[in-house]
Amino acid sequence: MSITSPVTTGLGNRWQDAAAPRDSEEWLDRAQEVADILAVDAVERDRANATPHAEVQLLKDSGLITLLGPVAHGGAGESWDTAYKVIRTVARGDGSIGQVLGYHYLWAWAARLVATEEQITAVEELYTANRFVFGGAVNPRDSDLVIREDGDELVFSGRKSFSTGGQISDLTVLEGVVEGTETHIFAIVPTDQDGIVFADDWDNLGQRLTESGSVEIRDVRVPWGSAAGFVDKVFQPLTYNTLNVPAIQLVFANFYLGIAQGALETASAYTRTTTRAWPYGGGDKQRATDEWYLREGYGDLASKLWADEALLDAVGAEISAVLHAPREELTARRRGEIAVRIAAGKLRIVDDGLEVATKVYELTGARASSNAVGLDIFWRNLRTHSLHDPIAYKKREVGGFVLLGEVPEPTWYT
Description:
Blueprint: H1 24-39, H2 42-48, H3 53-62, H4 80-93, H5 95-108, H6 110-114, H7 117-130, E1 134-137, E2 145-150, E3 153-160, E4 171-178, E5 184-190, E6 196-198, E7 215-223, E8 230-231, E9 234-235, H8 244-273, H9 292-323, H10 332-364, H11 376-385, H12 391-404
Parallel strand pairs: 1-4, 2-4
Antiparallel strand pairs: 2-3, 3-7, 4-5, 6-7, 8-9
Helix pairs in contact: 1-3, 1-4, 4-5, 4-8, 4-9, 5-8, 8-9, 8-10, 8-11, 9-10, 10-11, 10-12
Pfam families: Acyl-CoA_dh_2, Acyl-CoA_dh_N
Keywords: Oxidoreductase
Organism: Microbacterium luteolum
């Protein structure tokens, strides 16, 4: 890792004496400042693959960690509409850190999704006042954690092969099933305890700084009173509880968009300063930026990302409205309609983003394939996380809605 890294050389809190942002536009400006810092050495830090403690401290210092937290406890009290755009902005500078931030927002909202009013108040005060970062040991493709009852306590045990946030989190969301039943329980626990053991085995093609490796949960004890949404050991269900999946799917789509935007910005800057015009095509150009095929190429890619941004902004406003509305108001139909539109936005940015991350090489030239340029980080990051769940199923959900008016049933992935 570069010893001159702006993230790791102890710059301190550059915002310590700065006024807090006052509205969503100022928070987006703050996010851009963070992205600019991260972008300087994103490639070097990616290759070093070190646990991103300094990067997470940057998110805390900037105030972005508590963007959704209550104002009464030092948070910004902002909307999910703003949070999605902040995720996207940070991901332009570093896709891994954009993902960490997005997952944190979802897990920080987990109490609102499923917990009682008293539990929501306690969790939001805890994480906001302390600027705590969330991770989650919830990967649904693995076996559920097993929960056994021991008097007034629940004891979680098991293993998850993915746990984004991992060692950089302060709080971890657990989810398991009470043995001998079909009762699922969420609980939020401190990460720093003997019963949570990270394997430090995340070494994938992309999104390398997300701390998404495996974790063992060894007899982690939780009071029954901390079982999210349970009253007298009985869960109180709402349709609102199922918004976790469309909310996180839109988190994905927004950091995908940020990664693709970062690729286009990086490539166009390289073309302006370094790419040479092609001298053998007739009507020779003096500058690469005068080449018709480069102008056409950048115009094609930019127009696709602008269209994707418009769709993600529109559906972001839709889900934000229901996330901030009274929980009892959401209907299954409205939830499904929003999920379909998020599926459409996700499938578009996956296709368009991968095209951008690949074609930028054609627009920058052979010299841009140098490892020193680092254009590969964008394709690696987007390709890695876009495999999270099959995009074909998102297309099927949209098709079922268009043809038959069907909305998807809530699952761990829809």
